[in-house]
Write a structure and sequence with these properties.
- The chain has ten helices and no strands.
- By secondary structure, the chain is mainly alpha-helical.
- The relative contact order is 0.10.
- It is globular and about 65 Å long.
- It has helices spanning 3-23, 30-37, 41-48, 51-74, 80-97, 99-110, 115-141, 151-167, 169-176, 183-206.
- Helix 1 (3-23) crosses helix 6 (99-110), helix 4 (51-74) packs antiparallel against helix 5 and helix 5 runs antiparallel to helix 10 (183-206).
- The longest helix is centred in the middle third of the chain and has 27 residues, at 115-141.
Length: 213
């Protein structure tokens, strides 16, 4: 595939991600996606075959890319603590700078219909979560982290904070007294606070600290 074709394919995926996040699967037609991407229907069908194929490609692009990034972090020659901080920062950057994709996931998981798609999402998201668990368990096993850590609750806390900020932005905006639907505010104000807060939280909960007798 040529570089020009790669760009066309990416433009279709970008347009689909935007419209799926805004209107949902049912509310987004392949024709509107093609128009948004500036391509014809023949090209969209050539690359993805159907709306289902396009939808899964949107999900797979983001999820598999992040999975590869996390796997790379997990294999680095650095302490478990540094790996975990890097993984958290990478996740924060991806979630808080790419609201569209995470709104697609939340929208689909909240629907009762199309359970096959929900299962596809859950299975792939869990593969990413497992990479975080792997790093935490590594730290527990090598003695870097406390042994009485509730790994599942810790992972739920890490992921839950970011999901709340993205998917409950009207409520969170009132809590923080700023517009969390503004990408610039999310990037400059919220993202650094999220990273600092989670680092401090993890440090207190995970790291063995010497206490005075």
């Amino acid at each position: 595939m040529t570089e020009k074709n790669d760009k066309k394919k990416d433009s279709i995926l970008d347009a689909a991600e935007t419209l799926f996040a805004k209107w949902g699967y049912e509310g987004s037609s392949t024709r509107s996606i093609a128009a948004e991407a500036g391509v014809n229907m023949a090209m969209l069908n050539y690359y993805f075959g159907s709306k289902d194929g396009l939808y899964k490609a949107v999900l797979e692009r983001r999820l598999s890319g992040f999975r590869q990034t996390l796997a790379s972090i997990a294999s680095k020659k650095m302490s478990s603590w540094e790996k975990l901080k890097l993984a958290v920062d990478t996740y924060a950057d991806r979630v808080l700078s790419n609201n569209c994709f995470h709104k697609i996931i939340s929208r689909q998981l909240s629907l009762e219909q199309r359970s096959d798609m929900a299962e596809f999402i859950a299975e792939n998201v869990y593969k990413n979560i497992s990479q975080i668990k792997l790093i935490i368990n590594e730290g527990i096993n090598n003695g870097s982290f406390n042994k009485d850590v509730d790994v599942e609750m810790l992972v739920a806390t890490i992921f839950g904070i970011k999901y709340y900020l993205v998917n409950s932005s009207p409520i969170a905006s009132q809590l923080f007294n700023m517009n969390l639907q503004d990408p610039e505010i999310m990037a400059k104000e919220i993202n650094p606070r999220v990273k600092t807060y989670i680092h401090n939280l993890l440090n207190v909960y995970l790291i063995k600290h010497d206490t005075e007798n």
